[in-house]
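Form P-L/3: holo structure prediction, ligand zinc ion.
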Amino acid sequence: METAAVMQQLNSNAVDYSYRAPLALFGEFDKDSRKRRTRRVGSFTTIKVLADIFSFSVFSDGRRSVCTRTIELFERDLGMSESSVRRALKSEAAQKWVKCESKNAYEFKAEELINGAHYKYEAWMTRPIIINDNVLVLTHAEQAVLAYFNSEARRQPLEASSQDIADQLDMSLPIVQGAINKVCAKEFDLVHRLYIGKNGKSKSRYIINRALFRELGRAEKKKLKALQKQVQGTDDAAKSEDKRDIKSAVESELYARKRYREESAERVYTRALEDKEFKLTDEELKKLAPRLAFAEVRGSAGYMDLLDRQRELTERRRSALKRLNISEVELSEDFYIQCHKCGDKLFLPSGKMCGCFSRGAPPGEV
Ligand SMILES: [Zn+2]
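OUTPUT (holo model):
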């Protein structure tokens, strides 16, 4: 029951794996007078929740439905915290536009927004993605900028300055500039910036990498389809082909999370290494470890000295970290586990699939 909206999406060919965020959510901005008439309805997480409800209660072919979602499903599908979901559902905009039919059932009731334009979030934008062996995790603001490009720079190049984009999304210029740099980064190649306008005022030319968007969309679809087969739990699921699909979906998700954890820990470690004292003590400790082990096994006389040396270096390394405001656990991959229910293993000890594994988990297992 709780997964009704998900099932509808999974079962319908008419729906692609995206969320439509009506432009009105970003407030009204008059392009001619360059004046803002109304502000953005709230944070980008609020916008995502509203876009989700909108997409599942007003389908692109005009059909209407009720969006059935638990808080946990919002969290999982949109990559948000529980408190952000709750805040979004209590927001003024939600009070105004969303009718809560019953517990966990929502309907978007703003007729004036239904045929208007929208920015399109793809489901993959809300999760860590691997491109050219790099893991990309977009912030909520960066996702909004990418959704903007996905809609405005899709079919033909878009000419816009950073300030134009900031105005339309009701964002600050520095945040827009940071987001643009991230989505246009060469190693990811999501959006091509054909020339770079200076100082936020002059225009750049953008076009999205449609081939890559399609590929990421297909990968997402494949993952969800594989999960759907598992959801149905029919005899078909026993077919080896289906098993292979599920296996590869599981493998790629495991890989994505592992890369995310490794890279997050690596980033902190790299930052720590910029500190001379940390670098020195860290390297010394690494060199010391095998010597210490050797001395211990052999029972050699220098063992106690080495132990003292290790203690001293450990203490110095610890103070360096403290000075850098880095906690020891941040250097460990385990710190970045995304789901503490399954420890990123995707399966629970009972053998059931964990609800964190994308959408489409079997009802009752979330
Ligand atoms: Zn999990």
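COMMENT: The chain has 13 helices and twelve strands.
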